[in-house]
Specification:
The complex is a heterodimer of chains A (112) and B (115). Chain A is 0% helix and 63% strand. With 112 residues, chain A is an all-beta fold. Chain A is globular and about 45 Å long. Chain B contains no helices and 11 strands. The N and C termini of chain B lie far apart (37 Å). The chains are: A mainly beta (112), B mainly beta (115). Chains A and B meet through β4, β5, β9 and β10 of A and β5, β9 and β10 of B.
Chain lengths: 112, 115
Amino acid sequence: EDQVTQSPEALRLQEGESSSLNCSYTVSGLRGLFWYRQDPGKGPEFLFTLYSAGEEKEKERLKATLTKKESFLHITAPKPEDSATYLCAVQAGSGGYQKVTFGTGTKLQVIP
Amino acid sequence: GAVVSQHPSWVICKSGTSVKIECRSLDFQATTMFWYRQFPKQSLMLMATSNEGSKATYEQGVEKDKFLINHASLTLSTLTVTSAHPEDSSFYICSASPAGNYGYTFGSGTRLTVV
């Protein structure tokens, strides 16, 4: 069974204090790994898709990296508006059946 | 591009009634849409995969007769919660992906409260 584990569950940072969120996965036939941001009461907002180990993508203060077992979301000099829950998801499978499995998320709070 | 619209944003209904939630892809065609359920402080759980023109594929443990899914066109999928009960209260979210793109776009979600 596909498994996605995110850590830590919650993270509190001072504004400007860089850190990383972790997403470990165990899947058969990885097709893609996604990072999303979710604000309370809203649907997830797409951030990145990573397809293969060694791949990196950046967007403003966020940088996502991928290895064969895990992905990291690095947040550089975060601002209060970066506060949200960050979700990791993996798409796996083959042929006509592919499934997306989500982790439980990391709730990030950035304090001014 | 790749916008998914979900309606309504929130709904309160009486126990025993049915509620329909709509999910539309606004600027792309989606042969496949996905329905998720999210409980407070928990992650998204896939309920079913909605396929245009054919029956939906439900995940294990999801009642097909209770959560009716219809995907009648390439831009619209609906989820109907039948004979709703308080335990069905949750946040329901749909998603879709343009063909050839593995990035999934999510709707804004529907907060269902059954009283």
